[in-house]
Amino acid sequence: MLDLIIRNGRIADGTGNPWFFGDVGVKDGRIAAVGRVEQEARSVIDAHRQVIAPGFIDGHCHSDLMIFDHPHSEIKIRQGVTTEVVGNCGLAPAPFVKERAELLQSYVQPVLGKTDWAWPWETVEQYMEHLARSGPSENVATYVAHGALRIAVMGFANRPAAPHELERMKLMLEEGLRAGAIGLSIGLLYAPGSYTAKEEIAELCSILPKYDGLFSTHIRGEGNNLIPSVKEVIWIAEKAGVPLHISHLKAAGKRNWGKVLEALELIEDARARGMDVTCDVYPYHAGSTTLTTVLPPWVLEGGIEGTLEAFRDPSLRARIREELGREQDDWDNLVCSTGWQSVVISAVHTEKNRHLEGKHIAEISEERGQHPADCMMDLLLEEEGRISIVYFHMSDDDVSQVVRYEKSLIASDSLTCETGKPHPRLYGTFPRVFAKYVRDQRVLSLEEAVRKLTSFPAQRFKLGKRGLIVPGYAADLTVFNPDTIQDLATFEEPRQYPNGISHVIVAGKTTLTGDQHTHAREGGLIRAASCCTH
């Protein structure tokens, strides 16, 4: 007898092939039968001709700490997501050394959130073990994050790594890979990643081939420097002989709109000469990050405390204001190209500034009677550097181009946000793909959209037998109505769950039925298969 049968569905199996009508049988957490299933089962779900798809995989998000405080993962489960990949953009809560723990915590807090409990790990392996014991409702895999490595070894020093420092980082990277991390992520936009030369990164990446690891990167510039930044990471991957995945590919700033086509051509050229290069995209024209990313890179030396000290120095404050007022050659000054009205406060740290959430910097500066740059610096001082923003700097046409691109997968890039107004992608990414890009605009076929959310990320991130509706694969499944699936989260009211998803199954257990989470916690840690061979 089977544990579960989902009957009478349109099976979009994750391959991208046309859907077909049939049933899916489940036994012991695995798919046991597909097609016309005659066996009996302890539980039966009638899909009523809805789509049965593999569970969606969020291949780029920042739920590294949120998963502990919210192990039911209702925000993602209710979008049909059954697996997340964390440790992205060089940002992760491990590894760290005790004497620099506070540096790392202040570094990641605007993106990963703040915990009210002490981190009970130091190494990547210990973080993964703690995650495995937490019993989440979804599956989780992680990278080793370059920012954490560099802070552990060098703090926020703006200089090349000494040979012994580089060796220590390589050792810590290998420890994480041996524990089952899927690769190395780096955030070249964020200090201290931005302080790292391409040659140093290539040397660090030389560890990856031994573990079949992936090199994933938030590139150095997504505005005026988009094209040289894509060329840089392709050079690194080619030099190290590793597969490359470019995170949230975009062209930021109006003067750069359209450049995504040139960036995609660079990926195609690299693939034509035998390189393994892919990218991901989120389906919105606004991004979300920390307010400190608008600053000149030199201001971020010394971590958050060093940055706040710079704001207190009148001469340095004047220099920051002047540099933010003009285009820069060696870093992307997106404020100059998009304006302060594009920078919206999404979350602050203190109650006294809570009323500013949802307002843009130009509006706040006018209310305060300040220059926008001074307003921004004062806000960061008041909030001890802990401000998250939503950044309106992309073109819908560019987003559609990357969504359509065959070698792109779709992910949320969602940040943790316990207060304020998070980017709506936290609550709406996956239903939005089907509502906007499949049903309304017909940018993608239903089957291609399912592939980009299931088998493609499962293959890219080496998540084992997931992402396909095939006997023997994990019974992670999502059932949805293609006619009614809809994201409801907006920039004005982002904390809204979507419509149109009727069931979510994780490891064969019904985890969502209608709008009710069943409290099942059948997910867990996914380790890279290569960790078992070393």
UniProtKB/TrEMBL annotation:
- Which cellular component appears as one GO term in the record? cytosol
Instruction: Give every Amidohydrolase domain span.
Output: 44-510
- What InterPro entries has UniProt attached to this entry? Amidohydro_3 (IPR013108), D-aminoacylase_insert_dom_sf (IPR023100), Metal-dep_hydrolase_composite (IPR011059), Metal_Hydrolase (IPR032466), Metallo-dep_Hydrolases_sf (IPR050378)
Provide the GO MF annotations for this entry: hydrolase activity, acting on carbon-nitrogen (but not peptide) bonds, in cyclic amides; hydrolase activity, acting on carbon-nitrogen (but not peptide) bonds, in linear amides
PANTHER family, sorted: COLLAPSIN RESPONSE MEDIATOR PROTEIN, HYDRANTOINASE/DIHYDROPYRIMIDINASE FAMILY MEMBER
Annotated protein name in UniProt: D-aminoacylase
Query: From which source organism is this entry?
Result: Paenibacillus elgii
